[in-house]
């Protein structure tokens, strides 16, 4: 699926479309250049899922846990600062993946050999006028 948006107020619609398409996947991989909108899109997805706490980038903590109004956990990872895959293993990333809860992962290419067998991949890009493109890939 390919989606385009120009304005932030379109993100909630984009988030709902992504959740409809990717609903069977718990691990979501977000790729794109710095500033492409990965964290902003994850915030919209968390809103759509009913997360009740403030969503922010886990750049320094590596992982943030959020809770939906139904009590379900959502995990948000930022792998940018990881030096190697061993650091991801040290925080128990495989246990998060196996939890069945949503795991939204920014900079997943840093832990590529740890990806599970099934995942939903999202690539974000921005053009010179600020139009964002979201391309998805379902991997089973």
Describe the structure.
- The protein is an alpha/beta fold and 140 residues long.
- A seven-stranded mixed sheet has the order 1-7-6-2-5-4-3, with helices on one face.
- α1 crosses α2.
- The chain starts with a strand and ends with a strand.
- One of its GO terms (cellular component) is cytoplasm.
- It is found in: Cytoplasm.
- This is tRNA threonylcarbamoyladenosine biosynthesis protein TsaE.
- Belongs to the TsaE family.
- Tally of contiguous helical segments: 4
Number of strands: 7
Structural class: alpha/beta
CATH class term? Alpha Beta
The gyration radius over C-alpha positions equals 14 Å
Q: Helix amount, in percent?
A: 25-40%
CATH superfamily: P-loop containing nucleotide triphosphate hydrolases
Pfam family, one: TsaE
Main location: cytoplasm
Subcellular location: Cytoplasm
GO cellular component, one term: cytoplasm
Attribute tags:
globular, Rossmann fold, alpha/beta, 140 residues, seven-stranded mixed beta sheet, 4 helices
SSE order and pairing:
Layout: E1 2-5, H1 11-22, E2 27-31, H2 38-49, E3 63-67, E4 73-78, H3 85-90, H4 93-98, E5 102-106, E6 119-126, E7 132-139
Parallel strand pairs: 2-5, 2-6, 4-5
Antiparallel strand pairs: 1-7, 3-4, 6-7
């Amino acid at each position: 699926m390919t989606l385009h948006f120009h304005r932030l107020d379109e993100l909630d619609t984009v988030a709902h479309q992504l959740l409809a398409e990717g609903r069977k996947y718990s691990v979501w991989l977000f790729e794109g250049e710095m500033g492409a909108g990965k964290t902003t899109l994850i915030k919209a997805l968390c809103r759509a899922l009913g997360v009740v706490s403030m969503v922010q980038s886990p750049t320094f903590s590596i992982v943030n846990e959020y809770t939906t109004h139904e009590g379900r956990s959502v995990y948000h990872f930022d792998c940018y600062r990881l030096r190697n895959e061993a650091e991801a293993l040290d925080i128990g990333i495989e246990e998060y993946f196996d939890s069945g809860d949503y795991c939204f992962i920014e900079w997943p290419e840093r832990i590529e050999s740890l990806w599970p067998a099934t995942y939903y991949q999202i690539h974000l890009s921005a053009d010179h006028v600020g139009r964002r493109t979201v391309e998805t890939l379902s991997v089973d």
